[in-house]
Specification:
467 residues; mainly alpha; Na+/H+ antiporter like fold; 17 helices; 65% helix; globular; disordered N terminus; disordered C terminus
Length: 467
C-alpha cells in the first residue's frame, strides 16, 4: 500500500495544519504543559492516597484551614484559595491564549476556525445532554450537568508524552483549539449558571480598576517606556484588586482571570517586517505566568480538590453506580468523542471540506477520546455544583477521576497504535527541499507578500500591530 502524504490543501482539509509559525508556537506551548500535566497527576495521586489513609483527618484539616482578611470576604480555606485564587492564574492564561488565537492565530480566519470551534461546542453539548438524560429524575443531581463538558489540556498532553506519540501538528492544533474553546465555554457556564448571591456594588467598583488595568496594558509602551517588567509589576496589584472585587461580587473569581487576560494587548506579527521592539506584553505575561500555573497553581488545586474518600471497594461501587458519577463517566468517555467527531463530520459535509489524506477518522476519534480527560475544570465545576463535603460531591469526583483514567487509557491505545503512521507524517512535514527554513508542506500557508518569518519564544522575529 502506498504511504499517505500530508495534504497540501490545508485550508480545504480537516483538521487544518495551520501556518508553520502556529505549529511551532503550539508545539512549544504543549511541551511546556507536559511537565505541568505530570505534576498535576502526581498531586492528584498524593491527595487520593492521603485522603484514604489512616492520616486522612490531617489532609482534610489542611484543606479546610482558613486564612485571609474577613472584612474583604477573603477569609477562605486553603482549598478555596486554590480554586478561586490559584486557578485565576490558569484562567488568565486561557484568556491570553484565546485572544492570541482569535487576533493573531489561525482562528482569526473564519474558514479555519469554524470546524474546530463547532467541534468543541459539540464536545460540550453532547456530554451535558448525556449527563442530563442519566439524571433526569433527580433535580438535585441535575445541577452538575456541566461537569463532563470540560477538557484538561495539561493532563491530555501528559498522556501524549507518556505514550510517546508523534502526533502530527494538525492534530495538535486541533486538540489545543478544542481545549481552548472548551475552556471559554466552561468559564461562560460558570459565570452564568454558577454565580450565587451576586452583589452589584463590588462588581461596579471592579470596573474602575479594570478600566485602569486595560488602559495601562494597552498603552504600556508609552507609560513604561517599553520596560515590560515595570509594566507587569504595576498591573499585577491592579489585577488583584479586580479579582478581589469580582470575588466579593458573587461571580466566581476565575472569571476575573479570563477578562484580565483578554485586556492584555496581543502583538499581531506580520510576515516580512522586522521587529526591533522585542516581545510584547502578552508574551512576557505568558513567559512569567505559565510556569507558575502549570508547575504550581494547577497541581496545588488538584491536590486540594482530588482528595476524596473512596471508602474501599464498597464505596467505589456505591460511587460508580450513583447516577451522578455514571452521567459524568458516560459524558466524558462516550459523549466527548461522539460530540467532537460527529460535529466535525457534519461540518465537513456542510462546509465541503475533507479529511486530511494523511490522516484517518480513527485519528480524530483518538484525539476526541483524549479530550474526554476532563480533570481540572471538571473538579472545579463539581465543587460549584454540590456541597464540598457531601457524598454527591465525592461521587462526582470519583466519576471525574475514573472517566479521565478511562479516556487516557483508551486514547493511548488508539494513538499508540498509530504512532508508526505519525512518525511517517512527522518525517514528511520536516522536509525542506529548498532550504529556506520552512518545511515545504507549509509553503502554501505563507501569506502573500513575502516569506514567512517565524516568531521565536522571545517574540523577536517579526513586526506587527497590537490588538
Amino acid at each position: 500500500m502506498a504511504s499517505r502524504t500530508p495534504s497540501s490543501a490545508t485550508q480545504n482539509t480537516i483538521p487544518a495544519r495551520g501556518s508553520y509559525r502556529e505549529a511551532l508556537r503550539i508545539g512549544a506551548l504543549l511541551r511546556r504543559e507536559t511537565v505541568g500535566g505530570i505534576l498535576l497527576v502526581f498531586a492528584a495521586a498524593i491527595a487520593l492516597i492521603w485522603a484514604n489513609s489512616p492520616a486522612s483527618d490531617s489532609y482534610f484539616a489542611l484543606r479546610d484551614f482558613r486564612i485571609g482578611y474577613e472584612p474583604w470576604k477573603l477569609e477562605l480555606s486553603l482549598g478555596a484559595w486554590a480554586a478561586d485564587g490559584l486557578l485565576a492564574i490558569f484562567f488568565f492564561l486561557i484568556g491570553l491564549e484565546l485572544k492570541k488565537e482569535f487576533i493573531a492565530g489561525d482562528l482569526r480566519t473564519f474558514n479555519r476556525a469554524i470546524v474546530p470551534v463547532a467541534a468543541a461546542a459539540g464536545g460540550v453539548a453532547v456530554p451535558a445532554l448525556i449527563y442530563t438524560a442519566v439524571n433526569i429524575f433527580s433535580p438535585e443531581s441535575l445541577r452538575g450537568w456541566a461537569i463532563p463538558t470540560a477538557t484538561d489540556i495539561a493532563f491530555a498532553v501528559a498522556v501524549l508524552a507518556i505514550v510517546g506519540s508523534h502526533l502530527p501538528s494538525a492534530l495538535r492544533i486541533f486538540l489545543l483549539t478544542l481545549a481552548v474553546v472548551d475552556d471559554l465555554i466552561a468559564i461562560s457556564i460558570i459565570a452564568i449558571f454558577y454565580s450565587d448571591d451576586v452583589q452589584s456594588t463590588p462588581l461596579l467598583l471592579a470596573l474602575i480598576p479594570f478600566a485602569i488595568y486595560t488602559f495601562l496594558a494597552q498603552k504600556y509602551r508609552l507609560f513604561f517606556d517599553r520596560r515590560v517588567t515595570a509594566a507587569w509589576l504595576i498591573l499585577l496589584p491592579i489585577g488583584f484588586v479586580v479579582w478581589a472585587l469580582v470575588h466579593a461580587g458573587g461571580i466566581h473569581a476565575t472569571v476575573a482571570g479570563v477578562i484580565l487576560g483578554f485586556a492584555v494587548p496581543v502583538l499581531h506579527r506580520k510576515a516580512g517586517r522586522a521587529d526591533n521592539n522585542g516581545p510584547g506584553l502578552s508574551e512576557v505575561f505568558e513567559h512569567r505566568f505559565r510556569p507558575l500555573s502549570a508547575g504550581f497553581a494547577v497541581p496545588v488545586f488538584a491536590f486540594f480538590s482530588a482528595g476524596v474518600t473512596v471508602g474501599g471497594w464498597d464505596g467505589l461501587v456505591a460511587a460508580v453506580t450513583d447516577p451522578v458519577a455514571l452521567g459524568i463517566i458516560l459524558g466524558l468517555v462516550v459523549g466527548k468523542p461522539i460530540g467532537i467527531v460527529g460535529t466535525t463530520w457534519l461540518m465537513s459535509k456542510i462546509a465541503g471540506v475533507r479529511l486530511d489524506p494523511a490522516l484517518r477518522w480513527i485519528d480524530l476519534i483518538g484525539v476526541a477520546i483524549l479530550a474526554g480527560i476532563g480533570f481540572t475544570v471538571s473538579l472545579l465545576i463539581a465543587d460549584l455544583s454540590f456541597t464540598p463535603d457531601g457524598t454527591t460531591n465525592d461521587h462526582a469526583k470519583v466519576g471525574i477521576l475514573l472517566a479521565s483514567i478511562l479516556a487516557a487509557l483508551l486514547a493511548s491505545v488508539i494513538l499508540r497504535a498509530r504512532n508508526r503512521a505519525y512518525r511517517r507524517i512527522e518525517a514528511d512535514e520536516a522536509v525542506d527541499a529548498d532550504h529556506d527554513g520552512i518545511p515545504d508542506v507549509y509553503q502554501q500557508d505563507v501569506a502573500e507578500g513575502g516569506p514567512e518569518i517565524v516568531q521565536g519564544d522571545d517574540g523577536a522575529a517579526a513586526g506587527g500591530t497590537r490588538s
